[in-house]
Specification:
This is Transposase family protein. It comes from Candidatus Amulumruptor caecigallinarius. This protein has one domain. The strands form two sheets. A four-stranded mixed beta sheet has the order 1-2-5-4. The longest helix is centred in the N-terminal third of the chain and has 8 residues. The protein is an alpha+beta fold.
């Protein structure tokens, strides 16, 4: 089994698809996992040299389902992008339509859709 396959069983697949794990901490009470959005541009921007990665927004903490008897806190931050031609700073919304009816909570869906 690949590591990615295991992560898909433990975490929402949209996290595995769109974010990289950057830190992990384990205490007696909980797991804390930090994620940064992957550096992937939308297809329409991929060939535009004016659109560049521009850091990250703040971490947002979302409590997920417990793992192995511990609370699980997911610390997620979305990537910011800069359009050098306009000076606009933005982030991409992650389409959650394919996850309707899954175990995603409203707070997590809102985070995936929000702009920086």
């Amino acid at each position: 089994m690949e590591t990615t396959d295991l992560l898909r069983e433990l975490l929402p697949s949209e996290i595995v698809d769109n974010f990289d794990i950057v830190r992990f901490e384990k205490t007696e009470e909980r797991f804390d996992i930090w994620f940064d959005e992957k550096k992937i541009q939308e297809e329409s921007d991929a060939e535009n040299e004016d659109i560049i990665a521009y850091g990250f927004g703040d971490y947002k903490v979302i409590q997920d389902f417990p793992l192995r008897g511990r609370f699980t806190h997911l610390h997620l931050r979305k990537r910011k992008w800069l359009d050098k031609s306009t000076g606009e700073i933005f982030s991409y919304s992650i389409d959650t339509s394919e996850y309707e009816g899954t175990r995603l909570n409203a707070e997590f869906v809102d985070f995936l859709k929000e702009d920086c």
